[in-house]
Amino acid sequence: MLTALFLLFQAPLLKLFGASADTLPYAMQYLNLYVLGTVFVMTSLGLNGFITAQGRSSVAMKTVVIGAVLNTVLDPLFIFVLKMGVRGAAVATIISQAVSAAWVLRFLTGKQTVLRLKRAYFRIDRPLLASAVGLGASPFVMQSTESLLTIAFNVSLQRYGGDAAVGRKDGQFPRKVAGAVGRIVSYRDFSLLARENRFTRISGCGATAGRSDLEDHFGVFPFVAARSGPTA
Questions:
Q1: Is the full-model pTM beyond 0.85?
Q2: For residue 126, how many C-alpha atoms fall within 13 Å in the half-sphere facing its CB?
Q3: Which of 77, 89, 138, 225 has the greatest count of CB atoms below 10 A from its CB?
Q4: Mean pLDDT for each consecutive 10-residue tract of the chain (232 residues)?
Q5: CA–CA separation, 33 and 93 (whole Å)
């Protein structure tokens, strides 16, 4: 559904996200291919939590590392060696995500996993679904608002800096400031995001098991509150 949505409305969505007339063709070249790998992203990110829930954090970490390293290696190959340009970057990303998804599926269908994927489990349990939606509502709102802030930030840069701002003495300042602020915020958020992810999972496991004391013991809410604070 997401793939069809982006393919149908890619131009207005990209303009909404801050793409200009000059950058729109490159963005569309990338997005046309990238969205085809949406299923791999959903598979690797969505199912990786089931690996972490089993206490196999090292295996879950490899899911991310495999995709990141492979993407780093394939990007210059497809972009420069094969001369595919922006499309090459998209192809490299899709391949990397597909390998990460295959890694997750291989583990969750293998002998080492406790929570093994079975066809019988692919059904909707309404009470469980409602509980999961309730637990994920807070992270969803936080991520959504951060995404909206990023969109507003990009639109503002496009309006006041323009595409030619990079490398020009009369317009490079807004982009440099944006880059510096983004890096500072990212470094600040790394540790908070890691703690939030871990403690939110512990909180979810505790709520499922009826152990509300786990939330107070591990201090979930202070980290979530810190993470949801001002980003600039």
A1: no
A2: 0
A3: 89
A4: 85 86 89 92 90 86 94 96 95 96 95 87 86 83 84 78 51 59 71 69 63 53 47 44
A5: 9
